[in-house]
Amino acid sequence: MFSKYVLSAAMLGGLFLQNVQAGNLRIAVPKRATTTPVQQLNRDGVEAINKHHVDRAKKLFYQAYLLDPNDPFTLNNLGYISELEGSIDRAQKFYALAREQSYSAVVDRASKSGLRGKTVAQAAVILDKDMQVNRANLEAMQLLQKDQVLDAEEQLQNALKVDPNNPFTLNNLGLLREKEGDLQGALTSYQAAFSRNSKEPAIVTPDRALRGHPITEVSERNAQRIKRRLPDQDKLENKTARLSFLGVSAINRNDFGSARQYFKQAAELDSEDSFALNNMGYLSEIDGDHETADLYYQKARTGERSGAHVTAATRRDVLGMKLEHLAQDSDKKVNAVIDAERYARRRQQGPIQLKRRDNTPVIEPEPAAPAQ
After folding, report:
1. Residue 152 CA neighbour count, 13 Å, CB half
2. Do 217 and 320 sit in the same domain of this protein?
3. Is residue 3 within 8 Å of 63, Cβ to Cβ?
4. Which end of the chain has fewer beta carbons closer than 10 Å to its terminal beta carbon, N or C?
5. 284 and 266 in a common domain
6. Model pTM?
7. SS3 label, residue 170
8. Winning range, highest mean pLDDT, from 41-50, 217-226, 264-273, 355-364
9. Mean per-residue pLDDT for 173-193?
10. How many C-alpha atoms does 367 have within 13 Å on its Cβ side?
11. Distance CA 45, CA 58 (A)
12. Per the domain annotation, does 23 fall within a domain?
């Protein structure tokens, strides 16, 4: 009454993922004259997955589900399809139902060691750790696609805490380092993924030519690609971009001292870089020097890389925005503050008090005594 195969490892929409739940289980079917319709539909679905025909597999598994909504392997396979579609919550529900229905189903063979002789329910529990890692990887890559680099890094670090040797997480960390402009860090991550020598296949990838290839091969190709790009690491633009990213990251850790150093280093390297100019404007705002901030924001609007998109920021709502638009928005807000301060000074009673840019009063000398 059980299908011969349950699905194997996957790579989700360019997000490199490992085996999950009862994924990759190969179940021995007792010899009998005929197979049940549910068995055959699941078998056909597995063959479709092996040929990367996900849509066809989904239809077959749902046909099996209509015939027997309690079959644990069908439920597991629908969970797998849900993962391929990026719906982790729905996948978890299917996996939970599969565990509930799997009391007597025993694993005969599995690509993951330690599962032979276990029930499918026990195997699913053993693989719960893999599910946690998969979810963190999926969320990280979705965040990365939205240019939310810092949040993506947090998810990948969480995945590494669960399994520090996971090759899919290490490979994804390389993708993130590339996004940050840290090519050497990306190379280190790709090489770490490659060194795990994992043969788990990548089923869904941006590059169709890599589908079904082991993750170790994918990570090796990524490493080779980065090696060709390494000479670009020392370019001025990459250096300032890296310093700007480190500064934003420091602010998100409430380390304003380090952020100030990174932003100033970036500005010293390239005084025309729009990101460096914008960040110096931000520092001036923090210091209460709105007029200097105004000058920096004006320059950032037309500086180098002003048309580039923001990939790391202290505000989520500006991620993906063009830097020139962000600088313009910041400039308007600073000018509004300056105008408000001028208006408030006009309404003040008493003599006018001269102040420096840091808001400290200017002590004027007493007038000299008249000569006699």
Report:
1. 26
2. no
3. no
4. C
5. yes
6. 0.57
7. helix
8. 217-226
9. 87
10. 3
11. 7
12. yes
